[in-house]
Amino acid sequence: MRRRSFMAGALVLGGLPLAHGDEAMQSQTTQVRVADGVTLATKATGQPRLGTILLAMGSTASMVWWPESMVTGLADAGYRVIQFDHRDTGQSTTNAPGDLQYDIFDLAADLIAILDAYEVEAAHLVGMSLGGYVAQIAALTHRERVRSLTLIASEPLGMPYQGEGIDPRFMDHFATMAELDWSDHAAVGQFMLRVAELSAGSAVPFDREAAQRRIERELHRTSSMQSAFNHAMVAGELEPHLNASNLDLPVLLIHGSEDPIISVAAAHASVTAIRGAQLLLLDRRGHELLEQDMPGVVEAILSLVGRSK
Predict the structure, then answer these.
(1) What does pTM read for this prediction?
(2) DSSP of 41-100
């Protein structure tokens, strides 16, 4: 595996209060340098009384896709919660569409660089989809820096499994990207809304208005939404030891039973392969994070991290 040294630094850009209950919880936005010419937008909420939780979102998605109730729920329990925009998303360094300048190991190293910038000795990692995949790499290559892993809608690192594969409707929809006018804000918003709709499970009606609000926030924060799809080209050859079965830390798996992107079979394969792993199965949920599920999700994560100090 290719290894790199990163010089990490932080520049505080400002703080914003998050209303929650009877108090305002302070959040701080920071640009973190993770490599030459590469900075990541981060946001920290809460104080690290009990530790730090780092959230890594999935492919093409910035930090806005984490439900605020999840962030505040974890922060209220005594943890500093750090979110960030992956490369090519949100307010982080963005390359031109098709100009991929990093691999899967760079994305994993970004997690450690963020911890360095915040002077965190070891943290609990929570990753969704691609974020869970790179979190597993970080846990195996920097074991002393990771206290626990929560993998949401993620695949087991370096392991084949028998699943249904991605829903063909996604492939049909993504095929329309070739004709999409990326300068047309409304058209891009509709394209992303259809992705969100296809990602949903059948448990509850698709909340179109909530999805539209989040998409508008996403589009407002990024200089090139098309560049986020550079993530589809991210690759990297895994060495044999980079395998989920070699994870030797507390692991929680959270997966929707109707995930149309990463089959729930991935979670069952992971819970079998990772010694001591626990599985929270979200009935009839898709590749999504629903507000109504956040109390149970937060409780499960807090239970895990509370045993992993």
Answers:
(1) 0.92
(2) EEEEES--SSEEEEEE--TT--GGGS-HHHHHHHHHTTEEEEEEPPTTSTTS--PPTT--
